[in-house]
Each structure stands twice: as C-alpha cells, then as structure tokens.
C-alpha cells in the first residue's frame, strides 16, 4: 500500500476470532499453537503458568517495579522469554513475556499486549476478524492512514498526552454531554462504560443512575447520556454502563469491544493519532430500556463497507450480538451467514446459542445437532446440547453428552462449572461433586469462585451429606463475598442441617438484612425460630416467606431441604 510512492504500508495480518466478546488469536510460540487474547489495554504480553510450563520456558525475575494485582489481591508474576513468536508472516525473536495466573477462561493461554502490538502502528479491524501490525515507511507523518476509507468519512483524534514517552496506551479525547474527558480503548472490556466520576462531571444526577449490582470493590449502574463525541463522530441519546472504579485520573471512560467491533480503527504511534471509520450498526452495547442510537448524519448517511455478504463478518457480528443480548439482530446475522455458507459448524452453534437465549429450545437443539453433524469434535456444541437435554428432562441423552465431554475435556476446562450444575440437576451427585472439585482446584482467581463454593455447599446440604465439608465451602463463599444474600442463605441451611440453631438464625438474619425478600431465608429462619421455642416469630417468618413465594414449601421440599411438619 502506498500513496504516490511517498508513504508505504507494510501490514502483517493476525487473524482473530471473537469468542464471548473477546478477540482471540492463535499464535505460534516456539512452534506450538497458543490461543491468546489481543489485549490493547495490557502493557506487557503474558502467559499462563500452565502454558509456560507446557512450552518449557525458563522463569526469571521481573523488571524492578513490575507488579500485577486483581480485586482478589496481588498476583504472583515472573518473567520469561520466547525464542520465536510467529504473528501471521512475521516472526519475532527473543520476545519478553510475563507469566501470571490471570485466569481468562475460554481456553485462552495468554495475552498479546502492547509491547508487541505497539511495535509499529496497530489496526483493529475486528469486524473482519483481523488485527494488523503496520510498519509505515517514507513520508507518513501527515498522511491520512485510514487507507481503506475511500469516500467514507474518517474519524480522527489525537492521542492524549502522556507523562512518559514510552506510554503506548490508547487514550483519546472525547466529550460526554459536552464535557471533555479521556477514553481508553480496551479490547479486554466487552462493553464501553463511563467512570462514576465522569458521569458526575457530565452533570448526570444520582437519580439517573440505575443500579445493576454491587460487589466488594465496585458498583455498577446504567445511565442515559445526551451525547458522546469522538473526533467528529457524534452519538446522542445513549444508555451506557457506569462503574465506580479508580483509574487514577488517567481516563474517564473506556471504549470496549462494542465500539471496536462497530469501527475499523488505526492507531498511529508515529502521528500520535487514531483514524477510524464506522462499520454501520450500533456503536455501543444495547442496555435494557435504551433508546435507539442517533448518529451524526455525516457518518450515518455514509455507505458503510459492504459487510452484508461477508460470511465471516456476519458470523462475528452474530457472536457479539449474542454476548450483548441483541438476540433479534444476532439471529438475523446468523440466518444470513448460514444461508451463504451452510457447511460451517460453528455458525450453527452460534445460532443455537441465540435460539436458546430467546427460549427457543427446539430450534436450539436442531442447530446443536446440525453443528455436531458437521463437526462431532466441536465440544461447545455438545455442551450446548447437553444443557438443552438437561432442561428438557432428557436425562439419558444429557448424561451421554456429559460423559463424552468429561472424558475428552481437560480437567481445568471452564466448561466444568456448568457441567457440575447439569449433573446436579440430573441428580448425579458423585459426578457433580467431581466437576466442582476439578473446577475449583484450577480456578483459584476466578470471579465465580464464591459461587462455585456456594453451589458445592448447597449440593451437599440439600442431599444431607458431608455437612462438615459443606460448612467449609459456605464459609469460603461468604469470605469471597460477604454481601451476597444467597451465600448467607446457604450457610444458614447448612447450620440448620447441623443443628446449630443460633448460627443458622444469625446467617438467615444476615441474608434477610441484605435482601428482605429472601423467601428461602425467611422460611429457614422460621424453622430455626420454631426449634428455638418461639412459635410466634416462626409463624411471622413463615407468613412473610409465603407472601413472597406462595409455593415456597414445594420448592424447598423438591430441593431436598426440611419443611415444617405441621401447620403453625
């Protein structure tokens, strides 16, 4: 690529597949294939310890001042070097990686960070499944580097100034409700979001923040903004997520995979600018109750690149629509992709997942069967079918799929989290416990670890087995998240099974304090009150539980837990 012989582009294409809204590239490390997430928000490339061990990589000390942390605390980290890293047709030698247990899931074994991505310029063409490393040569300092744009309008914006010349983070000035801030482009974030401090600066009052959830470190809301603008592209009447995270003043929002799938973005470290064009469609992930995006007419009327007949683009858009809950759009994308190319198993898998999310189990099952007919080794399709059979009470068929998955998946496979729940629902306690044991032992830093401890605790408590182990698990769950009403509820039932009435009542008290409509905790506390000799309070809690959930006793009995012997 060149402009009148003055500026020449030398791109290296890295194929990328979007998996659960994460861009994953299959790279060759010392001659072996290693799936890595493309991480524009990560400064240094990383490998999981298991991947480093499998590759027989040496361990060494990290550079002074290097440290990693998560919401669970500090992460052990060391350094290593890879002899050969192959990116498309480019081979790099003696490449530095950090080795840390960051546990990304989805089979991802590492992160391709900016020490590699920013070796030259970087083009994020994720809608077409490509990230390109570009090495411009010649007189390129004043050239429009959106070489693909043709007559389409090009969004341009300078990169925000930095305190360090070596800073490669992609931060650009934007405005929210005409208030200036800085946005951080991060492929590791599924959806774009404002920081709470930015929302306040943009004049968004507290009563316009709708709560989504809370954990120990952060709270999440959604809110409506009047306008968002980046480099001339203006979008109005948009609902965005809001996070109460401390970015240290480096940025006021992040632009995630929703924005990067909707645009083709060229990051020029030479010019310290970004160049982008809009692919068409929604720019931000659709939040519940949100109005339709309204775009600046100059960008909205420009004909987007011809994506409608590109099967791979349609499939990627379908996958992303699934992750963002835009099921109708996702189904339309996948219907078109399958019509154009009906022999791709993964396309039927994606459509099956969308059908499942829409409640169309029969259609989802048909797609899962089609996918497995095309590729019997597609574990995700078998996993989808096992789940469908489980919820359709086709026990033998579900167990057949689960048994095959159990024998072929590695012990640390993330699938085992939901396989445990399926085995539990199918009343196969031994297999359910095995799946939980394997998943928990290999996911010590997973954000779902508390939920896994809670599920294993409740499984044992409901079956009245190994109650001392159940108690340990419930305590671990509460340690992971003391603000979870469900975790305190499970702990209460376990104490009740053990006959420890004071601790049972205290746990139910906490569950109800955190969530007053916790019917199971109200019922459990009524049992505790009765055994403690206070029939009046037992009756009050029982009535409250039945008011919240009229068939509470039936649900508790079916779960295998105790109910009142007679009417109070």
Q: Would you kindly provide a written description of the structure presented here, covering whatever features stand out?
A:
This protein is α+β, with helices and mostly antiparallel strands and 568 residues long. The chain has three domains: 2-137, Beta Barrel (Cathepsin D, subunit A, domain 1), CATH 2.40.70; 148-300, Acid Proteases (Cathepsin D, subunit A, domain 1); 448-568, Serine Threonine Protein Phosphatase 5, Tetratricopeptide repeat, CATH 1.25.40. The protein contains 20 helices and 26 strands. Strand 13 and strand 14 form a beta hairpin. Helix 6 (311-323) runs antiparallel to helix 7 (327-340) and helix 18 (519-531) packs antiparallel against helix 19. The longest helix has 15 residues, at 449-463. The radius of gyration is 26 Å and the shape is globular.
Q: Span from first to last CA?
A: 82 Å
- pLDDT < 50 stretches: 213-218, 300-307
The fraction of residues assigned to DSSP E strands is 15-25%
**Which architecture name of the largest domain does CATH use?**
Beta Barrel
Task: Specify the CATH class of the largest domain.
Answer: Mainly Beta
What's the pLDDT, averaged over the residues? 87
Q: According to CATH, what is the topology of the largest domain? A: Cathepsin D, subunit A, domain 1
Instruction: Estimate the helix proportion, in percent.
Output: 25-40%
Q: What do we call the CATH homologous superfamily of the largest domain? A: Acid Proteases
Instruction: Tell how many strands the DSSP assignment holds.
Output: 26
Q: Tell me about the biggest sheet?
A: 6 strands, antiparallel
Strand order across the largest sheet: 3-14-13-24-25-16
The dominant shape is: globular
Could you say how many structural domains there are in total? 3
Overall structural class, as computed from helix and strand content, comes to alpha+beta
Radius of gyration: 26 Å
* Helix segment tally: 20
């Amino acid at each position: 690529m060149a402009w009148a012989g003055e500026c020449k582009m030398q791109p290296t294409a890295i194929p990328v597949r979007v998996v659960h809204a994460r861009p994953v590239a299959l790279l060759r490390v010392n001659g072996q294939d290693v799936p890595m997430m493309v991480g524009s928000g990560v400064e240094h490339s990383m490998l999981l310890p298991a991947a480093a061990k499998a590759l027989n990589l040496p361990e060494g000390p990290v550079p002074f001042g290097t440290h990693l942390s998560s919401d669970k605390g500090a992460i052990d980290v060391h350094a290593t070097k890879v002899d050969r890293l192959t990116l498309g047709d480019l081979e790099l030698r003696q490449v530095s990686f950090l080795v840390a247990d960051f546990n990304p899931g989805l089979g991802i074994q590492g992160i391709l960070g900016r020490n590699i991505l920013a070796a030259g310029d970087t083009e994020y063409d994720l809608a077409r499944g490509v990230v390109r490393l570009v090495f411009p040569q010649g007189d390129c300092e004043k050239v429009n580097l959106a070489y693909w744009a043709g007559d389409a309008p090009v969004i341009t914006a300078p990169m925000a100034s930095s305190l360090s010349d070596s800073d490669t983070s992609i931060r650009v000035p934007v405005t929210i409700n005409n208030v200036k801030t800085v946005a951080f482009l991060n492929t590791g974030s599924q959806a774009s979001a404002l920081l709470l401090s930015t929302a306040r600066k943009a004049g968004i009052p507290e009563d316009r923040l709708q709560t989504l959830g809370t954990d120990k470190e952060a709270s999440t809301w959604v809110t409506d903004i009047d306008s968002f603008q980046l480099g001339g592209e203006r979008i109005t009447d948009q609902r965005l997520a809001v996070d109460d995270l401390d970015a240290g003043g480096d940025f006021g929002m992040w632009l995630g995979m929703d924005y990067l799938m909707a645009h083709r973005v060229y990051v020029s470290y030479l010019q310290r600018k970004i160049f982008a064009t809009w692919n068409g469609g929604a720019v931000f992930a659709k939040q519940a109750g949100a109005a339709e995006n309204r775009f600046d007419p100059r960008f909205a009327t420009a004909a987007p690149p011809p994506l409608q007949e590109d099967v791979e683009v349609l499939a990627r858009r379908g996958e992303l629509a699934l992750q963002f809950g835009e099921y109708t759009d996702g189904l339309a994308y996948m219907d078109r992709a399958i019509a154009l190319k009906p022999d791709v198993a993964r396309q039927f898998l994606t459509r099956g997942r969308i059908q499942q999310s829409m409640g169309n189990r029969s259609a989802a099952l048909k797609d899962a069967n089609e996918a497995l007919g095309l590729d019997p080794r597609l574990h995700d399709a078998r996993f989808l079918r096992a789940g469908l059979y489980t919820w359709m009470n086709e026990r033998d068929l579900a167990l057949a799929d689960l048994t095959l998955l159990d024998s072929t998946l590695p012990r640390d496979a993330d699938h085992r989290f939901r396989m445990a729940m399926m085995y539990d629902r199918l009343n196969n306690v031994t297999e359910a416990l095995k799946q939980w044991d394997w998943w928990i032992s290999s996911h010590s830093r997973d954000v779902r670890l508390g939920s896994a401890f809670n599920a294993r605790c409740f499984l044992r408590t409901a079956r009245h087995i190994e109650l001392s182990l159940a108690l340990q698990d419930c305590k671990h769950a509460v340690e992971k998240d003391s603000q979870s009403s469900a975790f305190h509820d499970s702990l209460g039932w376990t104490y009740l099974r053990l006959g420890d009435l004071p601790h049972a009542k205290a746990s139910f008290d906490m569950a109800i304090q955190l969530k007053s409509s916790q019917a199971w905790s109200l019922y459990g506390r009524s049992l505790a009150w009765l055994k403690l000799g206070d029939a009046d309070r037992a009756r009050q809690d029982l009535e409250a539980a039945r008011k919240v959930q009229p068939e509470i006793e039936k649900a508790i009995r079916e779960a295998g837990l105790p109910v009142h012997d007679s009417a109070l």
